[in-house]
Design brief:
The structure is a single chain. The protein has 131 residues and is of the alpha/beta class. It has one domain: Rhodanese-like domain (Oxidized Rhodanese, domain 1). The protein has 7 helices and 7 strands, in the order αβαβαββααβαβαβ. The strands form 2 sheets. It has a 5-stranded parallel sheet with strand order 1-6-5-2-4, with helices on both faces. Strands 3-7 form a two-stranded antiparallel sheet. Helix 6 links the parallel strand 5 and strand 6. It starts with a helix and ends with a strand.
Length: 131
């Protein structure tokens, strides 16, 4: 019975494991350096009310996760314009940005998770307000 169950369980888990792309983590300091060198772009995947409430990283492009999950009116042109660059993502705490990074990595894009906006601001990196 054991020998029959093992291959069956493995066949169930394999597609799940194959679909979850590994996402690298990058510190806010390293992200700022990569962006300054022109090697990467920084994306804030939070929603507009969050941007207005707390501010954003000064160098960030504002692309909500909801647009990526929806019709991608903002994401498609952004991805086209930034082909070849690494996409560094952050949100409030790092959860949504990790999800977006994994989804983009599965499409063959180079991504990394910077974590949360609070990590960026605590590192003393430049921020700006959004109206």
């Amino acid at each position: 019975m054991k020998f029959i169950l093992r291959p069956f369980l493995a066949s169930l888990l394999l597609p799940v494991l194959a679909c979850s792309a590994e996402v690298a983590n990058v510190t806010p300091q390293d992200a700022a350096k990569l962006v300054a060198e022109g090697k990467a772009v920084l994306v804030d995947v939070r929603e507009a009310p969050e941007w207005k409430a707390s501010g954003v990283a000064a160098s960030a492009t504002l692309l909500p996760k909801s647009d990526l999950d929806g019709d991608q009116k903002q994401w498609k042109p952004f991805l086209e314009q930034n082909k070849g660059k690494q996409i560094l993502l952050y949100c409030a705490s790092g959860g949504r940005s990790k999800t977006v990074a994994a989804a983009l990595a599965e499409k063959g894009l180079r991504t990394a998770n910077v974590g949360g906006f609070r990590d960026w601001s605590r590192a003393g990196l430049p921020v700006r307000q959004v109206e």
